[in-house]
Write a structure and sequence with these properties.
Number of helices of chain A: 25
Radius of gyration of chain A: 31 Å
CATH architecture of chain B: 3-layer Sandwich
Shape of chain B: globular
Strand order of the largest sheet of chain B: 2-3-4-8
Distance between the termini of chain B: 18 Å
Number of domains of chain B: 1
Low-confidence stretches of chain A: 404-410, 832-838
Number of strands of chain A: 39
Distance between the termini of chain A: 40 Å
Number of helices of chain B: 0
Largest sheet of chain B: 4 strands, antiparallel
CATH topology of chain B: Rieske Iron-sulfur Protein
Mean pLDDT of chain B: 92
Number of strands of chain B: 10
Mean pLDDT of chain A: 90
Largest interface: A-B, 41 and 49 residues
Bound molecules: siroheme, flavin-adenine dinucleotide, iron/sulfur cluster, FE2/S2 (inorganic) cluster
Oligomer: heterodimer
Low-confidence stretches of chain B: none
Structural class of chain B: mainly beta
């Protein structure tokens, strides 16, 4: 007869418990029933803030958390447990179901603490713990009007700062209010706190420390917060992030012992005062102490699972409470005995206000053993140092803290003993990882994640995983595809240096096989950047990706769209009329795009040249809407018309768009120019964005919308037009040469060793001495630019390829048909005539 | 064994009309759309032009290449690859499209259809 294990709560820790019990209990002696309050299976709460990046709950899913293929586990979602009867060993749910148990595990986590400030329960006040909380915040943020939108985060700890970042990413200006004397008071000491404040402020977050929130009042549809220091804030919304409280209410009601400061009291085997009941995760107070991070919770889950299903003697190990802030751009880490509480501990501090880096190591009284530390501004050594806690230091503490821990004293993975913990979230040691690499055949970070779980929670140890691969002598593949072992950047250099002009030569000399849909377009793009004539010339035509192949974007029904270039979005009435007439004569669906120009949809392949003949005659040229190339340079009206404008943004946008049109690049390139700081052209959402200042221009780089939105970062400020253009020339050429295939500028900059600072050194300070070469390459591109569509119209051989059927030119594809919607035609998708056996 | 059904051979184009490593579309009797490819191995192949994943008649416009030596075309819509010899989809074992025999005579490509 199988026994029943009931788990209350389905958070990350409960999920780990179920997995561990199932792994232990091969025989299937236990039936597991999970009673969960939330309507979805456990998800990655640690990564909750990244939900803002795409609003896609699936991106937070934990593998296997729905137990779809496991008949031993029953997951009941959306029905919380409300009562435990310890005598009858039953749990009752809100819906009235009564469930027996042999063993019960409480994994109810904690709830955000909302201080009893007057007005804390007004509409517009939120907490920050679940996907639903974020959805609600987003809805409120979107409901609030345009103009200056502001939010207050109550609490300046780790979670408060994450919430502030999320709010900023939603386009609100966040204020963080912290009662303590500094941000992250639990993790960071005074010295680090000062620098942290500076760095956070630079992220457009206003910081108020040493003050409380006295009240929140409704002010029309807005909120007015009054702080203890007299400040008043006019707000769209408020997020409370002032700590958490264990959800121990079930335990209290059924008479289990609870800790002095809350939490279900458990021993080091995670047993409560009732031997049939365990408590794990944030709700548990292990020997009186509650842990608010996931790693100790996972350790509890393993201990409880071993006790329940394995009958073992496992006990809760000394937990690792290291933390690292995942805020983009601001590194903060604290680990081990950060506050030097150990008897006789010494502190070694390295504070570089100019570089914006604060580092403190806590060492034993003989200064041989590392006890802990705090890193602010530059936490690149965090993983390494954390793994060294409790171990002899490989070098003098001062030498380790020296800038960038460089030179021979740098702490390397090799210095770590096998027992050092690399992934603290999942308690994976260096030995286990090197074992997986050497004996387990794991030759990539993805494979290490799969077999050891390292790197699958907070992700901060991932860089260490690739260093371990390196140090085990595993070369991590940068290969473009199965036909080339080189990366795109390497191929670019090879083709540039050898002046090979065709794909056939490149693959014969440097690759194998006949190519594929990855390497052909990638090499076509490199050949085009390096100026090898028309992209449909000779063999090049066969390499081009879908849209480049016919210089138009293919639609779902096999027809194409036509987008003429409208530089800067500026267009004469005559040209507008010309587009309208073409659309009317060819019966094309017409739409204004998000890029300040006009898209004409529904052209068949044989219509394309006729349409373009008319457009070219009217003075238009290709808009490259189909290419991995410069798309648009968006502009606002600027100083010519706008009462706030300080520079001619349209003029500059037109100049930039004409300068860089046709430049083939690893991914598409978008730009914007705004006439003042009001930023109506959304320049900071572009790969390169220019914002006018009283004295010239600010240049921002690495922004995009799309799947992973990014704000561009300031590269140079207050430069004149000539300098601006020179730096953009260099920026684009450097990107085109060194980025990966389909890598936009933001991830490219992130992956550069040294990031934005390195980029600035290379293209502003010319640290590599390549700027003249980059400028010359751009000058060559500009000199050789020719309109691609005109090139097709002038060449009968290219023109001949724009036919539906070789043996029936002029016969349109019989499967294409349209219907009318809102007075324009739209495609009708026919059923698929081929047999697709399913 | 059953006897091979009679095939109708339709001349579609001169060999030069297909650039090496690419495809063209042709119309066969009965409005059958085929895609004819000249692969890296120097051979001509023909498949149905209909992309079963999108329902658009566009496979001739896909990129021709190879996967581990198997000649393939990748659909221009969502990039699934098909074996040029058999029509089997390499990215979904349950999908196969019709393939057609091809022969070249006097510099003209002919496609056979039932
Ligand atoms: C037409 C347009 C939508 C509209 O009606 O407004 C559009 C349509 C397409 N977008 Fe877009 N995007 C359009 C503006 C945008 C914008 C907004 C903007 O540019 O201001 C964005 C977000 C901003 C950005 O890119 O940073 C945008 C982000 C994307 C992405 C995601 C890129 C990313 O980095 O994540 C793709 C997919 C890709 O490029 O791989 C995409 C891909 C596409 C493609 C080309 C998909 C394809 O390959 O067929 C769509 C072609 C439709 C067609 O058949 O013509 N489109 N697309 C816009 C054309 C602008 C133009 O004039 O050139
Ligand atoms: C934004 C954010 C960022 C974080 N970042 C980090 C980080 O970087 N590193 C780190 O280590 N930790 C981080 N944490 C903390 C980490 O998420 C928690 O420590 C971890 O999720 C605790 O897991 P748990 O399973 O104990 O509790 P929870 O995840 O809270 O799960 C408990 C579940 O039980 C349910 N429940 C409660 N009562 C009942 C009931 N009566 N009946 C049924 N179900 C019930 C709840 O609805 C909930 O789904 C972060 C947390 C947040 C919110
Ligand atoms: S960004 Fe400034 S100059 Fe441009 S339209 Fe907006 S307010 Fe006017
Ligand atoms: S340390 Fe968090 S995933 Fe490895």
């Amino acid at each position: 007869m199988s026994r029943t294990l009931v788990v209350v709560g389905h958070g990350m820790v409960a999920h780990r418990l179920v997995e561990a019990v199932r792994a232990e209990d091969q025989a299937g002696a236990w039936r597991i029933v999970v009673l969960a309050e939330e309507a979805r299976p456990a998800y990655d709460r640690v990564a909750l803030t990244s939900y803002v990046d795409g609003w896609d709950p699936a991106a937070l899913a934990l593998p296997g958390a729905d137990y779809a293929n496991d008949e031993h586990v029953e997951l009941r979602l959306g029905d919380p447990a409300v009562e435990v009867d310890r005598d009858r060993r039953t749990v009752t749910t809100a819906a009235g179901h009564v469930q027996d148990y042999d063993v019960l595990v409480l994994a109810t986590g904690s709830r955000p603490f909302v201080p009893p400030v007057p007005g804390h329960d007004l509409p517009g006040c939120f907490v920050y713990r679940t996907i639903e909380d974020l959805d609600a915040i987003r809805e409120a943020a979107e409901r609030s009007g345009t103009g200056r939108r502001a939010a207050m985060v109550v609490g300046g700890g780790l979670l408060g700062l994450e919430a502030a970042k999320a709010l900023r990413d939603m386009g609100l200006s966040p204020h963080v209010v912290e009662m303590g004397p500094r941000l992250m008071p639990l993790q960071v000491d005074e010295g680090g706190g000062g620098l942290l404040r500076r760095l956070i402020t630079a992220l457009d977050v206003t910081v108020h420390t040493g003050t409380s929130t006295n009240s929140i009042e409704a002010d029309g549809d807005r909120l007015l917060a009054k702080l203890g220091n007299g400040t008043e804030l006019d707000l769209d919304l408020v997020v409370f992030s002032a700590g958490v409280r264990p959800r121990d209410e079930l335990a209290r009601a059924c008479g289990l012992d609870v800790g002095e400061r809350g939490g279900v009291l458990v021993d080091n085997a995670c047993r409560t005062s009732d031997p049939a009941i365990y408590a794990i995760g944030e709700v548990a107070a292990v020997e009186g102490r509650v842990y608010g991070i996931v790693a100790p919770g996972y350790a509890m889950a393993e201990v409880a699972a071993a006790r329940i299903a394995g009958g073992g003697e496992a006990t809760f190990p000394e937990p690792d409470t290291s933390t690292k802030l995942k805020l983009m751009g601001v590194d903060v880490a604290s680990f081990g005995d950060a506050h030097a509480k150990t008897e006789g501990a010494l502190e070694v501090v390295f504070n570089d206000a100019v570089a914006g880096s604060y580092k403190k190591l806590v060492v034993s009284d003989d200064s041989h053993t590392l006890l802990g530390g705090v890193l602010v501004g530059d936490a690149s050594e965090y993983n390494m140092l954390r793994a060294l806690v409790g171990r002899p230091l490989p070098a003098d503490p001062g030498a380790i803290l020296a800038p960038a821990g460089s030179g021979e004293n740098a702490v390397g993975v090799d210095a770590l003993p096998d027992s050092a913990q690399i992934c603290s979230c999942n308690a994976v040691s260096k030995g286990a990882i090197t074992d997986a690499i050497v004996s387990g055949g794991c030759d990539s970070v993805a494979k290490i994640k799969g077999c050891t779980r390292a790197g699958t929670a907070c992700g901060s140890c991932v860089p260490m995983l690739s260093k371990l691969l390196d140090s085990c002598g595993v070369e991590q593949s940068k290969a473009l595809c199965e036909h080339f072992t080189h990366s795109r950047a390497e191929l670019f250099e090879i083709i540039r240096a050898t002046r090979l002009g065709t794909f056939s030569e490149v693959i014969a000399k440097h690759g194998t096989g006949s190519g594929c849909a990855i390497c052909k377009p990638a090499i076509a793009s490199i050949l085009a950047t390096l100026g090898n004539g028309h992209i449909l010339g000779g063999e090049q035509a066969t390499l081009q990706d879908t849209n480049d192949r016919f210089l138009a974007n293919m639609q779902r029904n096999g027809t194409y769209s036509v987008v003429p270039r409208v530089p800067g979005g500026e267009i004469t009435p005559e040209k507008l009329i010309a587009i309208g007439e073409v659309a009317k004569d060819f019966g094309l669906y017409t739409k204004i795009t998000g890029g300040q120009r006009i898209d004409l949809f529904g052209a068949t392949v044989d219509q394309l040249p006729h349409i373009w003949r008319r457009l070219v005659d009217a003075g238009f040229e290709s808009g490259h809407a189909y290419g991995k190339a410069l798309r648009t340079v968006k502009s606002c009206v600027g100083s010519t018309w706008c009462r706030y404008g300080v520079q001619d943004s349209v003029g500059l946008a037109v100049e930039l768009e004409l300068r860089y049109r046709g430049l083939r690049s690893p991914h598409k390139l978008k730009a914007g120019v705004s006439g003042c700081a009001r930023e109506c052209a959304e320049a900071r959402g572009k790969d390169f964005g220019v914002i006018a200042t009283e004295n010239g221009w600010n240049l921002y780089v690495g922004g995009n919308g799309g799947t992973m939105p990014r704000h561009a970062q300031l590269l140079v400020s207050d430069v004149d037009t000539e300098t601006l253009i020179r730096i953009i020339d260099r920026f684009l050429m450097f990107y085109v040469r060194t980025a990966d295939r389909l890598q936009r500028t933001a991830p490219w900059i992130e992956e550069l060793d040294g990031g934005l600072d390195h980029l600035r050194e290379v293209i502003v300070d010319d640290s590599l001495g390549i700027c003249a070469e980059l400028e010359a390459a751009m000058a060559e591109h500009i000199a050789n630019y020719a309109d691609e569509w005109r090139g097709v119209l002038e060449d009968p051989e290219k023109l001949a390829r724009f036919t539906s059927f070789v043996n029936a030119p002029g016969t349109p594809d019989p499967t294409i048909s349209f219907r009318m919607e809102r007075e324009q035609k739209v495609p009708v998708m026919l059923g698929v005539p081929e047999v697709v056996s399913r | 064994m059953t006897a091979m059904a009679e095939l109708t051979w339709t001349p579609v184009c001169p060999v030069e009309a297909v650039l090496p490593g690419s495809g063209v579309a042709a119309l066969l009797p009965g409005d059958i759309q085929v895609a004819i490819f000249l692969a890296g191995d120097g051979e001509f192949y023909a498949l149905s032009n209909m992309d079963p994943f999108s329902g658009a008649a566009v496979l001739a416009r896909g990129i021709v290449g190879d996967t581990g030596g198997v000649p393939t075309v990748a659909s221009p819509i969502y990039k699934e690859r098909f074996d040029l010899r058999t029509g089997a989809c390499l990215d979904d074992a349950e999908v196969e499209i019709t393939s057609y025999p091809v022969r070249v005579a006097d510099g003209i490509v002919h496609v056979g259809s039932p």
